[in-house]
Amino acid sequence: MSTASRLRPAVLPWLRPRRAPRLGYCYSTENKPPMASANEYLEKLQATIQPRLTPVLLKVRNASDTLRNITRDFNDPKEAIQRAGVALNQLTGYDHIEKVKQQVTDQAKAFESSRDQMQQAKRAYESAIDTRSSTQREINELLQRKHLWSGEDVTRFTELYRLEHEHSQREIHAKETYQQAEKQMDREYMGLAQSIMERYHEEQLWSDKIRSVSTYGTWALMVLNLVLFIMMQSIFEPYKRKRLTDRFEELLIAKVDEEEAKFRGLMQDRDDTQRSVLNAVNELAAAVASGNQQLESQLKLTLQPSSSSEQPDLSPTQEQPPPTTTTLPSDDSLVMRKRDLVMYSVQSAVAGGVIASLAMFLWK
């Protein structure tokens, strides 16, 4: 069983096509029932969505497993933070970029190692070339004086010829090693360049994905804000306004009741004051009326002549009686009575002014 088949998630239950009920007859291909077309559409939809959902489901499953491990082994905060970062990287797909980065680092190390090996092989090849060149130079010197060879020169020539053959084989082997090291260095360099390009490509894809996710997130936040604004304006604000209106009405009714109670008290006080003023005015008017009657009676008594001073007959024979004298009231008593009259008038004027001012105040 392959890794892809083991990692392939189960088919989502809502994406499974429902089989059409088996009936006693078959439909023709020309006249397909609606259920068959729906099943075909669901199969196509499943075939289209399943490859896209598989990596997402794998990432979500790995992230959930990592978060479960974090919540289960929450001993060290630093370790928990590291695990949370790993889970976030798995969820966003940045773990693949981390793997590519590690691959680039390993490839760079391999390239450095292959370059060092190539340098060593190059030095060994150059050393083999120098050794063979020195051997060939010595052989050429011996060949130039071949007619003067001695026994030692023959032995030396034979030995040099054998060494030249060994050095030639060693040079060929060093050359092959150098060429292989150079090819290996080229392969490592190409692998490094490929890994760098892959890292750049993956980072570009990840940044595009994050940018698209941020764009969709921004749109989602805008839609959420719009929905919240509509809900606030259509549900919460009317409810809040109704509560404020009810509260204001309650406070207004309470304040009106309080003001009415105060106004009733003031009206009661005014009525009491008005009654007292009216009583005082009535008493004052009665006193003024009684004083006027007494004054008029006294004036009548003062100004009326006595009954004995009637006009007598003017007969000459009848004697005139001696004149009678009556006592007039003194000026002091008249003055006091005038003062009382003035006081009564002033009091009545004051009472009338008070009544008029109260009437104007109440009318306002």
Task: Give an account of the 3D structure.
It is built from 6 helices and no strands. With 364 residues, the protein is an all-alpha fold. It has a domain at 3-18 and 33-221. α4 packs antiparallel against α5 (151-303) and α5 (151-303) packs antiparallel against α6 (331-363). The longest helix has 153 residues, at 151-303. Residues 1-30 and 306-336 have low confidence and may be disordered. Residues 101-145 form a coiled coil.
Question: Which helices and strands occur, and which strands form pairs?
Answer:
Elements lengths: L2 H5 L26 H39 L4 H16 L1 H51 L6 H153 L27 H33 L1
Describe the sheet with the most strands.
none
Number of helical elements: 6
The total count of strands amounts to 0
Structural class: mainly alpha
Family: Belongs to the SHE9 family.
Membrane topology: Multi-pass membrane protein
Subunit structure: Homooligomer.
Organism: Lichtheimia ramosa
Q: What are the key terms here?
A:
364 residues; mainly alpha; 6 helices; 82% helix; rod-shaped; transmembrane helix; Sensitive to high expression protein 9, mitochondrial; mitochondrion
In short:
Residues 101-145 form a coiled coil. It is a multi-pass membrane protein. By secondary structure, the chain is an all-alpha fold.
